[in-house]
Amino acid sequence: MTDTPATVVADTPRRGRPRGSYAKTEGRRQEILAAAFEVFSTSGYRSGSLKDVADKVGLTQAGLLHHFPNKEALLEAVLTLRDEESVARTGALSAQGIEVLRGLVELTRYNTTIPGLVALYCVLSAEATDPDHPAHEYFQRRYDWVRGTMKDAFAEIQRHGQLRPGIAPPAAARQLAALMDGLQVQWLLDNDSVDMPAEVVAFLEAITTEKF
Questions:
Q1: Are residues 96 and 52 in the same domain?
Q2: What's the whole-model pTM score?
Q3: What crossing angle do the helices spanning 136-159 and 71-90 adopt, rounded to 10°?
Q4: Would you say residue 120 lies in a domain?
Q5: Which of 35, 99, 188, 199 has the most CB atoms around it within 10 Å of its CB?
Q6: Per-residue pLDDT tens for 136-173?
Q7: Which residues of 130-151 are buried (b: 16+ CB within 10 A; e: fewer)?
Q8: Nearest-CA neighbor of 37 among 89, 107, 114?
Q9: Residue 39 to residue 75: CA distance in whole angstroms
Q10: Do 44 and 88 belong to one domain?
């Protein structure tokens, strides 16, 4: 599977643009995205305003709109960065079978170090259940991709005799996705008593013959 759920919203640099100018622009974009992470994760997408984001980086709203044409584009960029990080850490575009699952365990460990981004995802995914939310279709596509990637991994494991009898790859994919997302909410509420990586490992070892 080669397509990812991320939608790239950054403009392609114009040919001949000075390297220093481009680097400065990219640096400012990263500052804006960091501010947007904070605003959207604490206030939600609808309550968090472009003015809130602009204020955090010392820009006017017009200045912010020079980098991102509207609030929806900023949201897409925030979600894209999280997806790109996740794909890189799981190796989902190149790994197969058991290695995809090992990558998901590693991703769960990494998520314990970025509570702000985890909170952002939880807030936005809940808000986006509303069909009118601008990220509604994004999250639909994302879940289709996540479940499809997991299903393919479990099917490959099954072909190698590593999936326990009676376990169906599509069901295992849905259960793993639900477990990972549900654990994030519980961890955000009480991270001292919820060990996300350990719970994911326990689930995978219960349905496969492998050790994680």
A1: no
A2: 0.74
A3: 10
A4: yes
A5: 35
A6: 988 999 999 999 999 999 999 999 999 999 999 999 99
A7: eeebbbeebbeebeebbbebbb
A8: 114
A9: 11
A10: no
